[in-house]
Amino acid sequence: MSKTESPAISRIVNAEIVREHFGYWPDFHDAEITKVTFEAHPGYRTSITFVIAAFEITNEVDKSGHYKLTKHCDIEIQLTGIQEMTFGYFSQQNVIFELTFEEVGSNIECTFDSSAGLDASIVAEEVLVLSLTPTQQ
User: Fold this and answer.
1) Which residues fall within 8 angstroms of residue 27, CB to CB, at 6 or more apart?
2) pLDDT, average across residues 6-34
3) CA 107 to chain CA mean position, Å
4) Closest of 20, 25, 29 to residue 8, by C-alpha
5) Mean pLDDT throughout 130-134?
6) Are the beta carbons of 112 and 96 closer than 8 angstroms?
7) DSSP character for 13?
8) pLDDT tens-digit profile of 64-100?
9) What is the pLDDT confidence band of residue 3, given thresholds at 50, 70 and 90?
10) Are 93 and 111 in contact (CB under 8 A)?
11) Which of 34, 57, 29 is nearest to 115 (CA)?
């Protein structure tokens, strides 16, 4: 389960889709970024869309000693109106320790704390959950 939720989460459009699936807003520990799309839109408005393969880690252990994972899904999150960005190390596997959202004035900073691969921080005007699709693992 997630620690205390950042106030920035309440500003994420459609955040309730993620909360309904998990029962809370997750920290995305060990989630994998599987796709990133950069787009330019009319009016100098840019966006970055991430597909995140996420799940819940339970306290139960399987026969091989690994924690059981549930609630597998792909979450599509879009950041629009990009103000600042650092983006590096995107590779064949992009696992994160944590995904955080913090208010920075009227904007939201999204930080992908890297475990392997992608390491990014993006300050955007708006964050939207575009979709959540349950998956089988």
Assistant:
1) 2, 3, 98, 99, 100
2) 95
3) 17
4) 25
5) 97
6) yes
7) B
8) 888 898 899 999 999 999 999 999 999 999 999 999 9
9) low
10) no
11) 29
| Continuous H helices in 1-137 | 15-22
As a whole number of angstroms, the distance between CA 107 and CA 69 comes to: 33
Distance between alpha carbon 112 and the CA centroid of its chain, in Å? Answer: 8
Which of 97, 133, 102, 131 is closest to 117 using CA atoms?
A: 97
Contact 18, 9 (CB under 8 A): no
**Residue 2: pLDDT above 50?**
no
Report residue 5's pLDDT band, with 50, 70 and 90 as the boundaries.
Answer: confident
User: Are 78 and 128 a contacting pair, CB within 8 Å?
Assistant: yes
Residue carrying the six token digits 């950041």: 79
Collapsing DSSP states into helix, strand and coil, what is residue 21?
Answer: helix
Asked if 76 contacts 11 with a C-beta cutoff of 8 angstroms, the reply is: no
Q: Which pLDDT does position 32 carry in this prediction?
A: 97
